[in-house]
Amino acid sequence: MSLQQRIEILAELGNRLEQSDEKLDAIIQKNYLYNKWFTIENTQLAIQAIRQELLDKNKLQTWAAQYNISDNQIQKRVGIVLSGNIPLEGFHDIISTFIAGHQSIIKLSEKDEYLIPYFISILTDIQPESAAYFPVAERIKGIDSVIITNANDSTRYYETYFGKYPNIIRKQRASVGILAGNETEEDWKKLGIDVFRFFGLGSRNVSKLYLPKGYDLAPLLEFWKRFEHLIHHDKYKNNFDYNYSLILMNGLPHISNGIILMQEAEDISARTAMLYYEYYDNLPTLTRKLQAYQDEIQSIITNQNIENLKTTPFGQTHYPTLNDYPNHIDTMKFLTTP
Fold first, then answer.
1. What are φ and ψ of residue 140, in 5° steps?
2. What does the pLDDT read at residue 151?
3. Which residues contact 330 (CB under 8 A, 6 or more apart)?
4. pLDDT in tens, 48-79
5. Do residues 201 and 89 share a domain?
6. Do 151 and 117 share a structural domain?
């Protein structure tokens, strides 16, 4: 199958995801019943982002043109271990492997067992030859290389077991937001999406805010009460209540609007239903600090243009482009290097 054929197939997947699909609706509902973190709304938003950014024909062609992809290359078997923190997490790796002309040996997450197999079934319906590119396996074996996402709890195991193969073993990262103090309510709304979508479970969710000295968080927290539907979600509320109990038992300073708990802390990654914050004196100093944390940060979200930092505008972190690689590791370069 040629590169152009593979691009056409993915673009047609994008077209089909735009159409009404009762079977997909049923699978989204089934996924939610199996994993209550995967609400119908969040899954639909994840699909929308994939359709918009990862399955557009022109974007796929521009992206693929950056790499040396030959129609005559030797096909490799690439093991892909998915984490399932958010709906369809890791689908970028599957697309990348397909565009590179290799076969994905997919180990599904038990938290997300239905969506990706259905996407594969659509690809197979579009072009039956596609099926050979996406075998789903209980165990990853007989591979040439491997890609693993969010390996924090099992890093040593993965490094031991797969260290002999060319690999990408990604650890969990977090994202941060930078406020200047002149943000509008529309900015606050978009930042709220960056914080709260997917219940804050993704590496692109903002888990810490950097604030100018003297910044008053009260108006922002009051505005964010529009996200109060989260606290009616059992799993989210359980995390909120648990963290709130720990804070009260230990007498820790905090602020809250009843939806999210905020603490001043230097750490980057906050627990579910929590958000850390830290004040900064000036942008050059903050830039140097964030550069030192570059191995822990996925995205820096702000509406400011900050020299020497790659940033994402408010409201865009959950719409990663084809070139916006997890952990900033160029997956396509890895897949297309002999």
1. -90, 115
2. 67
3. none
4. 999 999 999 999 999 999 999 998 888 999 99
5. no
6. yes
